[in-house]
Design a protein that fits this description.
With 139 residues, the protein is α/β, with parallel strands linked by helices. It contains five helices and five strands.
Amino acid sequence: MNLIDTNCVTHIFESTTSCIETYFLAPEILDEIAFTNQNLPKEFISIESHHLFNQAIYIDFYKKMLNKHEGKSFFNMTGLGDISILATIHTILHMSSTHSDLFDSKDITVFTEDIRLTKKLKKEFLSSSVSLKGFKDLR
């Protein structure tokens, strides 16, 4: 499963890279992209549209990640996409432990070039199977 950060989406828009893989968007990432007035490629899918994604569990993890991690600001609207990605991964891991047909949690890849998000992901999912990739790995 591929999750994509705002900076990679922006890179795709600016470089006119075409995608052949499917990329899921965390809720806050989808909101951030909405302000660009760009049409999303069909390969970009909101994680919320998946029939087994549980919004209540996501919100609980979102609250936990908000309280745990620094570097976010409601005033400047920064860092909330990072929190959303962290909460989304926790939700996927939780749901896949109870519903094996939800996602294959063995293969969660986050596409980002954001150093702060990368540090949070490494700290949060050090022992899990979350991998990180950058611009050059987008397909």
